[in-house]
Amino acid sequence: MTNEQLVAEYVATRSPRVLDELVRRNQRLLHHLLKRFAYAQEPYEDLLQVANVGLLKAVQRFDPEKGRTFSTYAAALIEGEIRHHLRDSLLLRQPRWVRKVHGEISAAQAELTHKLRRTPTLGELSERLNITEQGIIEVLQLYARVGAPEEPLTGDEFAAGAERAAVHSLRLQSFTLPVEDRITLYDALDKLSTAERRIIYLLFFREFTQQEVATALGLTQKKVSRESIRALARLKSVLQRNVI
Length: 244
Hints:
- The protein contains 13 helices and no strands.
- The chain is an all-alpha fold and 244 residues long.
- The protein starts with a helix and ends with a helix.
- Mean pLDDT is 82; it is low at 146-162.
């Protein structure tokens, strides 16, 4: 069977056997693509896992009606996944909550600029994001400092200089975590191991099935199940300590 036929069968049946065959068959493609990133300082096995995540995304999103072969489509998606991972790795010194909230600010600014046909005011950004104006200023300043490659902040320097208390919500909203609670969650995620964060990220942020996570990370489905239970228990423990 061709890649295209295997993808069609997987979409129709969600068979782990078919998914495993697709992943096995395309490993040579992944290794070929990773040669383009030989300059990266990331461990090869880590990049290979990232490439496998991109391959799974390609399986889920491939549309044969658009006239592209699966390998062509997958190669572009896998490269994008690796480049995104490497960009994130350059900012590892940044606390997760700074990256996340800065991303929300950037997205809101782009959305409002398009809607208003002008640069939004600080007050308009504050209202749109439900974050105080001082909180937005604080995040922008911290992001600029922590993201500076020539002089990144260490964790101790950041903890000493950050006015984290300034970043809070203007008002409560139903079914939405206040920004201060999201910051607490991001900090708690940082307490997990890299492997635990990957499993939580794929299961709950990407909404992969346990079998898809197992295939992406080279684990068994039972191992993913056990590790996810352990990671969630640890996350709960960290969050309880932060709240008390």
